[in-house]
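Running this now, will post back.
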Amino acid sequence: MDNKEIAQILEEIAELLEIKGENPFKIRAYHNGARVIEGLASDIAEFARSGKLREIKGIGEGLAEKITELVKTGKCKYHHELTKSLPAGILDLLQIPGLGPKRAKALFEKLKIKSVAELERACHENRLVDLDGFGEKSQAKVLEAIKHHKKTEGYFLISQAKEESEKFLQYLKKSKGISRIEVAGSIRRHKEIVHDMDILISTKRPAPIHQAFTSYPAVDQILAKGETKSSVILKSGIQADLRTVSDSEFPSALYYFTGSKEHNVATRTIAKRMGLKISEYGIFKGTKPIPCKDEEAIFKVLGLRYIPPELRENTGEIEAAKKGPLPKLIELEDIRGVFHVHSTYSDGTASLEAMIHHSEELGYEYVGISDHSKTAVYANGLSEARLEKQNKELDRLERKFKKIRIFRGIESDILADGSLDYPDRVLKKFDFVVGSIHSRFSMSEKEMTKRIARAMSHPAMTIWGHPTGRLLLGRAGYAINYDALFETAEKYGVAIELNANPHRLDLDWRFCKKPKAMGLRFSINPDAHSLDGLSDVAYGVGIARKGWLEKNDALNTMSVLEVEKYLRGRKK
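Update: finished.
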């Protein structure tokens, strides 16, 4: 290990000690030691090997021991123990410019924030505004710092990737000579996180298209510029690749570059058995191409029904397409209302009236208000007195808004013992209850499963909120027994949330098939904390499609009368 690497570990030790609230003199010793080593002109390893570390001013006995261990083994047991003693991801907060150990400690202690993803979500939910040492301006700076930090990350949320790809496409469409243009790859398949952006264009004049592509104002770096392929890094950090083909090649190229790799391997095997060859250039019988005007024609040649892009993950779609029509996947237009909506009564950024009005503007027939319950102090959870105040305002808003039905709910914390966060006399007043875990994520699989199962058995619990608690690019979900909880949900008639917030997209699409087969209902909820957040439903629908869900699988594709009947039946 060189001086810089050793200094970095000593600095991390100092930061970890500061977060843990250790002796300030001890903390200062590690900070000073890191600075001394980083400023040395000679190799610290030479001092360690010769036993002369103590001759360096600022290096005491304890530091000398740790440095020697690092030089000899490349590891430090003390550093490892400190890291393990704090939640995974806490060190990532220190990578955000302007935070530092003291502020990271405040975020951890006051808001239970343990990762960059959790911090970003807290900013979007306006939680830093009233936190000591922060405020509105600080919150905005933290958000900007997070954006900068993300430039160095390898993956991006589907929401950011889709938004950027749509802007890029609109820019490229102004170019002359484009016959067809599409975004392919994992964005087209609606993966929850994506690594890069694939754009495909058919044209007879590729050179001007590649010039326009590399001249896009959002380009930060040009990696390659050619006649058929160009690659750039955008200012956001996303890599974008452009491929230009002839119009006759476009269907096969679109199919090939959409993927997934596993899906493509499976269909190439089918083609080979039929004496055919399939590639990005087309389908061939020997050297003779088989004309295909679109992807549907490609699947027909292979003896398959058309497979929507979202399903192309080699998870049974090919076998299903051999047998007959695939499910008619849910569409965004099928959504008739939303649940799991927050307001300024808890940690939302818009008033009740504004959230209801915007839901009406979006064409929804109903909206389910569900602010945080009282235990969620960090999220300004509602006391019983404040619930009464909210109900009085909802009475007024019901008289004002005639075109949209307002359902009254709560996002109730599922407490450690599985109870819901309010006495029964309060819970029975709600039209619906979203039961969610917001604490004690580290419980064992058995304990967490038992906790959630008990909550589901309560007559008031309507929807199992963000089932695994994951935060994409930030926090893995807690351990649960999926099969046991799906069976419990079926037993008690609890719907499963597909949380459409792009930071969550939870339940994961990989686990949707079984509850669908069991006849369980899904509720595609925006978990909206702002007006813009109401539109996140689109990302949830994309994940629902990946999970093979159809219109009738979703609770919020029902009409107002159907939902009212469903909720009344659940409360019996």
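The CA atoms of residues 35 and 315 lie 53 Å apart. More later if anyone needs it.
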